[in-house]
User: Fold these one by one.
Assistant:
Number 1:
Amino acid sequence: MGIPPFHWWRTVFFLIPAISLYTIVLGTLSIGSSLFEKRGYFAHWCARMWSRLILRTTGVDVDVDGLERLVPGRTYVFVSNHQSIYDIPILFWSLPFQLRIIAKESLGRFPFLGWHLRRTGHMLVNRARPDRAIFAWASALTSKGLSLIVFPEGTRSPDGRVGVFKGGSFHLALEAGLPIVPLSVVGSRHVMLKGRLATYPGRVRLVVHEPIDTSALVGSDPKAFGERVRQIIAPDAESDAVGSRQ
């Protein structure tokens, strides 16, 4: 067995301890703030700072195209492809909105991260037993000035190609008539390849596409609508899928 490369050592002995420290400190501040600030705005600031520190420490720069298409303060459902565990910090830092996520229930068991998610307005769901309470929670997004992030592939892409979008991810937005914003994350998988521990510095591109008005689409087929959104996201997201570093 050969000697691990430099970036493996950097990840294990520098990045992981640093990110753990950021998570503990900002997670504690976030959880503490939830005792006094129920809207979760300060907790979201903590999440953005956590994201920024992770990106800076790793050496990840993000170029954002298309933010001018969005109206500040409006509620959106942001729909993104999923290439890397770095996608969440990329989106939280790059999008100037009060963001919440729908995540799998198991994330709630992680110390600090899970506590933050449970206490600051994020929704943790059991995918085997979806709950109609999700829709009641989503209907409150607009009144609270919150936006939502979903990753409808359900898992990270191993090669940069965009997988099939699960129709259930769009059920919520179509029921509530919330505008959907397709997002293409390009190149984040090179920062940390799926199944590998080494993390690399790099430059990522985030493309914010034109929002889709769903107010007249109540009752539409979520699966067919999901494919429509996937067709918008895929061309940019897959632009580096062929001939990329392995």
Number 2:
Amino acid sequence: MIYLTADVHSEIKGNWEQKKARNSELDSAKRYLEILKKYKIRSTLFVNGICLEKHPSKIETLLKFDTELGGHTYNNFGNMNIFKSYINRKLFGCVYGSKNFQKKDIFKTKKTFERFGLKMKCWRTHAFASNDETFKILKSAGVTHVSDLLGEQKPFEREGIIHMPINIPVDQNTIAYGMLRPENRDPFASCTKGRIKPEEWFEILKKRVAENEKKKIPSVLLIHPLTMETLDNFRLFERIAKFLSKYKSGKITEFKV
């Protein structure tokens, strides 16, 4: 069983992929879903709340596909910078910030979903920057499934939240875009570090998914639409989708412990 997820942002300061891409991340997400439709793959998109407010017609287009939308903070923590990130980690133990800020941001995102006629049942914190307080707030907001953890773990439930760890190496944190260096060729440093060629990453993805299937472990993947567009205009993603199509797929909130 595979659970394919994607993160869709409004704007990230200094993001070179957004600068290089011709269209917005919502446009990339549409092309991404068109490919998934071709191969009959179901998915979950984690979307910034501000996208629902500022681009309702594009969100409506995404909802025509076999996907579900989950929360991904309102706008990537607002005006985040290196100094603020450091202070938040120092004072609150995570980049997301204080309990009060997190609560305000989560419920603000939830309200954008509700105004759109949607229930925000699943969540991924931008940059996986959550802590235990985040999960408590999410539970109080009615969220049932969270996908913030990385590594070779099975999904599990803790204190009323079902956690869906990403157990396949993430695309944009694993693929090398520039010159490869010998010291950066470890493909499985944590699951998010290492810099390898796209083809190598794809081979690892296939191997990991096949191994999970044999062990009857759900594969939770994060593949970014914008990364796939920037890499090679979705050519690699088409091949990935074709490979994944031989497995049963589901949406994050359909998983039960």
